[in-house]
Amino acid sequence: MNKKIIIVLVIILTLIPILSGCLEEERKVNHKPSVEIKNPKYGEVVSAIVQISGTASDPDDDKTIKKVEVSFNNIDWEEVTGTTYWSYEWTTYQLEDGDYEIYVRAWDGADYSDTKTISVNVFNPVAQPGGHKWAVFIMAANFPEDNESKLGNGGLYLAQEMVAYFIENFNYPTSNIWIHFDDGFIRSRDGLGEVIGDLSSSPHKYNINYASATKEKVIETLEYVVEQANNFDDSEVFIWLAGHGCGDVETLAGGKAFERSAIYLWGDDILEDKELGVILSSLKSKRVCVLIDACFGGGFADKTIYNFPTFFLLKSRIPRNGRVVITSASKYRAAYSSVIEGPLFSNIWFEGIKSGEADGFMSGFRERGRPTRLNLFEDGKVSVEEAFYYTRYILRTDEILKEYGKSEPQINDQYPRKGTLGSFKGLVLGE
Questions:
Q1: Domain match, 244 and 96 both
Q2: DSSP state of 32
Q3: Do strands 337-338 and 323-327 pair parallel, antiparallel, or not at all (unpaired)?
Q4: Mean per-residue pLDDT of the chain
Q5: pLDDT tens for residues 324-335?
Q6: What is the DSSP string of 340-362?
Q7: DSSP-assigned letter for residue 14
Q8: How many domains does the chain have?
């Protein structure tokens, strides 16, 4: 055989696999991604802030999913948070009651998935007689990158336990209760791991309102609660804010001597004491409890340390007649929390209420807390103030917890009015 022919054949045989591979690559078909809506369910009645959530996948590779989008009544498309697990918070406060179509689609950079659609009914109920009570639980726990600084899911578990108690014992309507937690997602390993689902799909006893602890959503809810509570003379409002307080434990007085107290919300946004004061400035309710469980939080109660008031230019303006403002730490001290159990102060405070052990506790010297003598002040009910003094007493006397008493919890009690005699009567939730 001619040498030239042999050489040509060798070259052809060498190129065939390469060329066939290229041709096969060119013929490779992109598969459309798919998307599923897990929450809400078809035909469900929804209200307040609705957490629309679900999953998306791609036969080629889940990592190729570029985005998931949602549309209402097929008008405009908005990008949601997340891809494989995704979530979108739909605020319905200002919408007209009625049926709405929710459309969702995923995109892998080349093709959109088939659109999934469900119908829901928006109904924001008007508070009924006896149901003029509102509670908001807020915690951003897992936003730092390092696990050592994360507070885990303990605050969420505690909030859910408190919610159940408020519903069953204080008659709070489920429609009037919110839990704002992190970015709206649940993470494995008690909050230290990867996203495994959204708040609305997590196990919970009652159908309440779930949302993220972003500043936008927190403010939306608080403003809505103020608006609704102002419609009734007998309204009662409970607000619980827990998480990382702004300050530096290595600095004298936490660096807060000439700064305001503030708490972190999701994404490094902060809510200063004065900002919360502005939001609550128009709240007319005369039965209000605000509990701040965070480091350096005393400024929310207009207190520094040892019951001393905040400098007048740094006052939050949250305390006023009809309100009890409680903080787990002074403006200059750190607070404590467990990844599994949640904030320490709130745990003891809540235990004092539900067990009845706090009944009869009084302020004592420098509001350090002491039990009543001869049971003179026990009446079978536990006020939020009694629970505060009980907590301070436990932190001071329990050998295991003594070290945590250095946090110097603070209270500004103006229920029903400002002054020693004016605030003698305690605020019992649910009455």
A1: no
A2: P
A3: unpaired
A4: 89
A5: 999 999 999 999
A6: TTEEHHHHHHHHHHHHSTTTT-B
A7: H
A8: 2
